[in-house]
């Protein structure tokens, strides 16, 4: 049995990557590549990721931070729904 095809293993791997904040390493690498793409770009990619917005959001968040968190969450839900539909269509056997 191939362990990478096991749904439970993939699920726990994803949860661990998010909960241990391992993705911040990936975000920092992307942030270091951005100046090579555009010299005047001053952007932090982690501000537009779901895990950053979950950890940064609290009751004292300003309006623009709240709007960004809601927008990122909405886009995440849309992308997740589209990906789920694609996976279901590929696994659907008639």
Task: Report on the architecture of this protein.
The chain is mainly alpha-helical. The chain is built from four helices and no strands. The longest helix is centred in the C-terminal third of the chain and has 29 residues, at 63-91.
Task: Label the structural class.
Answer: mainly alpha
Give the helices and strands as they follow along the chain. HHHH
What coarse outline follows from CA principal-axis ratios?
globular
Q: How many strands appear in the DSSP assignment? A: 0
**Rg, nearest Å:** 17 Å
Unreliable parts:
none
Distance between the amino and carboxyl termini: 25 Å
Strand proportion, as a percent range, falls in under 5%
């Amino acid at each position: 049995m191939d362990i990478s095809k096991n749904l439970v293993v993939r699920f726990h791997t994803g949860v661990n990557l998010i909960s241990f904040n391992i993705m911040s390493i990936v975000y920092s690498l992307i942030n270091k590549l951005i100046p090579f793409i555009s010299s005047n770009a001053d952007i932090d990619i982690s501000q537009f990721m779901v895990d950053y917005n979950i950890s940064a959001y609290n009751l004292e968040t300003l309006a623009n931070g709240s709007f960004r968190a809601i927008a990122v969450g909405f886009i995440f839900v849309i992308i997740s729904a589209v990906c789920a539909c694609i996976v279901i269509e590929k696994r659907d056997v008639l």
